[in-house]
Amino acid sequence: xxxxxxxxxxxxxxxxxxxxxxxxxxxxxxxxxxxxxxxxxxxxxxxxxxxxxxxxxxxxxxxxxxxxxxxxxxxxxxxxxxxxxxxxxxxxxxxxxxxxxxxxxxxxxxxxxxxxxxxxxxxxxxxxxxxxxxxxxxxxxxxxxxxxxxxxxxxxxxxxxxxxxxxxxxxxxxxxxxxxxxxxxxxxxxxxxxxxxxxxxxxxxxxxxxxxxxxxxxxxxxxxxxxxxxxxxxxxxxxxxxxxxxxxxxxxxxxxxxxxxxxxxxxxxxxxxxxxxxxxxxxxxxxxxxxxxxxxxxxxxxxxxxxxxxxxxxxxxxxxxxxxxxxxxxxxxxxxxxxxxxxxxxxxxxxxxxxxxxxxxxxxxxxxxxxx
Length: 372
Known about the structure:
Helix content is 45%, strand content 15%. It has 372 residues and is an alpha/beta fold. The protein has 2 domains: 2-78; 89-362, Rossmann fold (3-Layer(aba) Sandwich), CATH 3.40.50.300. Strands 3-2-4-5-1-6-7-8-9 form a 9-stranded mixed sheet. Strand 4 (232-238), helix 10 and strand 5 form a beta-alpha-beta unit. Helix 5 (113-127) packs across helix 6 (142-154) and helix 6 crosses helix 7.
């Protein structure tokens, strides 16, 4: 092609310049040595000082890449893959998960960050059934997350079975599902259907959950290997403050900054969208702002998109000692776009979070909507 011919010509020219530079360096060193052998060291140093810059300029033009034609530029643009949908209509209006970049999902403890991340995992596996979606959990074991996924896929209030395990200290869907599986029961149709859905997702390789405590360097190597073997849709990591590096760092802030930089390199090298959880300071009381991330190692600098998760009912629980909100089953999650390199910022999507089932749905759709 025209472009490949230009590149070939440029490479031949660069090689010729390097050969010329090599000859000139040998000639310069020979002249300097002759002066030194005569005892004229000062003149030898002056010669080197005056000529080295001239020799360097021989290949200076090689620092510039070949000039790309507009046609070639259009061809390059056409290879950029589209962003992945989130699965939530109100969020898809202004953001997507960009391949080769980081999307940061940030929230304070207890505000639904992890719940949102595993809901995104299920939503994307539904939208892109021919691809594998990896979930690296640094916070909890696979078996614990699997119960949450089963609860999410079952999407059923199990409080009607409250008296079936009277020895349980507390009752909720999560505890009931653990007891149900431990006692090898198969009599609740909704749970059996949830089990079937989860088995299909796992056994067909559509979702892959890993709880190994990989260093960010190990993760880089692993994903480079996996990306060659299979069609990966996206990578979800929960969450960055739990990750580690093999590099010695000055303090936690610089450690997180280094890990963030390495995760960005993973995204660039693999071309995969990285959805990265980040925990904001528990002491902060106002709604999340981009400045909150600076306290955690300038995470926002490496991210293509930053989305905050805010659960006002959680704030009300803490402020009122739970007197008003702890009995509320369905609450709102406010997702706000704090940074968006490819669109508008400060856009807000309001999702509905069922605390019993772990189901997060779009407020713009039927609240009872369950894609699985």
